[in-house]
Amino acid sequence: MLSRFATGSPQRSLLGRTISHWIRLCRSAGATRLCVDGSFVTAKEVPNDADAVVLLGPDFATRIARGNVDAILLPKSSIHDRMSICSLRKIAGTGTTG
Fold this sequence. Notes:
This protein is an alpha+beta fold. The chain has helices at about 1-5, 10-30, 60-65, 70-80; strands spanning about 35, 50-55, 85-90.
């Protein structure tokens, strides 16, 4: 995805670096999915932003309780990076998200 959408303008490169940072945080925080949307994944030369939805792993709360810095930073990252992020977690045994 980054090789396709993170090139062509300085704004795309900046957003691509930010998404790369998100990917690293998500992996360390135990996220199971990161879905990227918004004007970043269009043909727009200068996208406004990137939107993302993160599906958190079942042990996300435990990672925070144990002080996993990346799990703690993940929700705060969107504010700092001025990008939109929505975190979801699976509700154990129900197959639904909340």
